Amino acid sequence: MSRALLLTLLLLGCEAHPIPGADAGDGAVQTDAGLPDAGPADSGPTDAGPTDAGPTDAGPVDAGPGDAGPPPPPPPASVFFVGNSFTFGGPVPTLVEDLAVYAGFPPPNVEYRAIGGQTLEGHRADGDPDGAPARVAEGWDAVVLQEHSVRPTDSVGPAARFYEDATWFYDLAKTANPAAEIVLYETWARRFNHSIYPDPFTDPADMQAQLRYHYYYAAEEHVPANRASDAPLSIRVAPAGDAWELQLAGGEPPKLHGSDDYHAGPAGQYLNALVLYSTLFRRRADGLVPLRGLDAATAAALQRAADDVTGEEGFGVLGPSPLLPVSAGDAIAIDVGPLPASGWTALTASALTAPDVATESGAATRAHVTSWGFSGTQEGGAADNVLGWPGDVSRDTLWVGSFDGHAAALEMEARLVVRGLPDGAYRLELFASRDGDDSGRGRLTRYRVGDRFVDLEVSDNRGTVARLEDVRPDARGEIVLRVGVSPEGGARFAYAGALRVVRTGE
């Protein structure tokens, strides 16, 4: 049974209340590739928001009838979003880019055209050189389409117009790049106390069921049957609204909606980005970095909701790829900072991930090391180290902290994430150097993995190395090293200059 038919059966008995011409606005601000300016006013209901409902029934689709279809495309190097305030709130495209970078993918080129209250029909008629048709025609690896929040429904609609405009953009994207993947960004129902209930929608479950049905019908049935492009079929749904429904089935907090009970608040924006990241990059959301100021527990709950609806497997850039062994006593060595050093793998400010790092003995590995959240670079360390390393290893670092003082710096944290090492015990060796003691404040840096930590005074350091013993990759195969100022001192800045990961045992 197709998902579209299954969802049809689920909707039997839902009463529709058509409202001719009704069109609730999805915001009133316009952004073009991230630059905000004034946009059209809302029409229809002026206050609206996502849903508080029960379990979902939805998932990704990427195949022709009776055929597994072509192999999945490689991770997209470029993504263009078309939408309205449900897209530029966040902005969600920027959050997706941030998640992809943290996961170890090369930074994708992510841009968007999002106009408050806009439909795909309105975007289709936009003849501006920066309008969605002109931008989509440039050719992108992936194009994300977000329709107005009540158009893909029976109660308001017209859903048929959504099908037609989604198909038109599909063909445009495929003409520009036959390998492009089109993703339909499913939106969410408004909060349970919103005035849109009980008319035209009975409740959030009714609204979400209608949205779910029409997004999946477009992807599974209408676009495949009506597309003009003969390029390989590649269209999926990013079930963001279903993730909202699943998360809210457990109640609040977190509150996913903003203050208007319509748009997404910070938690909702993060959840949308998680679902879109997983759909675009075909990876689980579990373990991704919290964004939007969310605490770790809230982020983990939202990641579980995203994973439950997308069903993706594999973590980060490596996915489910097999790992290569690392012999006891061998190590990978990373020079962290802007200056590459001969014989060392460089993790610079511009190259955020060092891929497939060979060991010091020259053995190949799948190890990837990613930097995240550092504030800047410096080259004012001691080049005359006593460790026998090249001067450029000890001279440069990445740093995190605040010129506003120690208290502000305590709120900041950077990460070095090691992926792709086989299970076993490792020793982390950490070094950094910075001339001077910052007018007596010192530069006491804390390195932490889980609940374990070690401090290192970086000021004028020429040979002291901090060590964390018996460190093991977590269930995702990651070692997450957190870098920040130590609360034991008065430092404003923390530093990372070199990292050695030494295999010590099983």
3D shape: elongated
Largest sheet: 7 strands, mixed
Could you give me the name of the CATH homologous superfamily of the largest domain? SGNH hydrolase
CATH class of the largest domain: Alpha Beta
Compute the number of strand runs: 21
Distance between termini?
A: 47 Å
**Which range best describes the helical content: under 10%, 10-25%, 25-40%, 40-55%, 55-70% or over 70%?**
10-25%
**Spatial order of the strands in the main sheet?**
2-1-4-3-5-6-7
- Extract low-pLDDT stretches: 1-24, 28-66
Total number of domains: 2
CATH architecture of the largest domain: 3-Layer(aba) Sandwich
Protein architecture, described:
The protein has 12 helices and 21 strands. The protein has 2 domains: 3-317, SGNH hydrolase (Rossmann fold, 3-Layer(aba) Sandwich), CATH 3.40.50.1110; 331-505, Jelly Rolls (Sandwich), CATH 2.60.120. The relative contact order is 0.11. It starts with a helix and ends with a strand. It has 506 residues and is α+β, with helices and mostly antiparallel strands. Helices cover 25% and strands 22% of the residues. It has helices at residues 3-11, 85-88, 92-102, 120-124, 132-136, 159-176, 204-226, 240-248, 266-281, 296-310, 391-395, 406-410, and strands at residues 29-32, 35-38, 78-83, 109-115, 142-145, 181-185, 235-238, 331-336, 345-347, 353-354, 368-372, 376-378, 397-401, 414-419, 425-431, 444-449, 452-457, 466-471, 478-485, 493-496, 498-505.
